[in-house]
Every structure is written in C-alpha cells, then in structure tokens.
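User: Hi! I'm working on a homework problem where we have to compare a predicted structure to a textbook description. Could you give me the structure for the chain below?
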Amino acid sequence: MSEHNSEKYLLENAAVNIFVQIYNQSFPGKLTIQVRQERPDVILAHADQEFSGLEITHLFYDSLQAKILLGRSEDDFDRIETMEKSIYTLNELIKKKERIYKDIGLEFELSLLIRNASPIYGMKDFLKHKDSIYKPFVFTNIWFLSRDGNDEWLLTDLLQA
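Assistant: Happy to help. Predicted structure tokens:
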C-alpha cells in the first residue's frame, strides 16, 4: 500500500469510526461496519440486518490547504477563505462523487459521508447556506461531519437539513 493510499485509508477509517459512534448515539437502529473496500468505501449493516454503502470523502478549502494540513507542503496558507468558495468546493466534491456512482448499479442504498477539514468554517456556517448546497440524486443521505470551533464532532444529513 502506497503512503498516499495508507494516509487515505487512515483518514477514511477515522471518519467512519466517528460517524458510526455519533450515528449510534443519535439515531435509532445501530450501525456496524461490515466491509472496507474500494467502492463504496464501507458497507454498513443496520440493526435490521439491511446493508448500505458509504462513500467517504474530506472537504478541504482547496488542494493547497489539503497539502498543508496533511503535511505535504511547507507553504503558508495565507489566503483568506470565503464561505462562498467553501460552498462551491463542497458542491464540486458532491458532483464528483455523484459522477462516479451515477451509472453503477448497487444492490443497496448508498450514502456519502463528508468530513469537514476546514479550521475556519464549522457545521453552523454550512447550515446557514444549506439552500446553496447541491442535492444529488444518487445518495440516500449526505452525512456532514464537522466541528463548530471545539473538539466535539457534529453530524447532520445535508439532504434533510
């Protein structure tokens, strides 16, 4: 496994573990992780033994911020982040994932988990702009995992928000 794939796996693994923990504390019907794979990233089992797929991704402001936060660049991130650009990046990320799955026939429901990596914008900032967030047709849920200026992770479904 290459360093990049190993790092990607670790990021995805952390995100899905946080997601399952918060989901199980917040919603009826417990989820368990059944299989880790390439597409979708995870197969989840619900308490009623139904299965669903979960594609996992991370939202960075842009590729430079991702490289800096992941320790792949020594550059300073001295640009001013805007919420408008963050929403644009979020929408492009959702559309990219939608393109991957639009023609794949899955035998179960598929959800998207987006872990927000922004050190500036949290859950409440994105929810203020929920009407501007792209709503794809291939995902049953778009789970958004984010913080709001503290260490507590928050979870919401952007399709229901």
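For your comparison, note the following. Confidence is low (pLDDT under 50) at residues 64-73. Strands lie at 31-36, 42-46, 51-59, 109-116, 142-147, 153-157. Good luck with the assignment!
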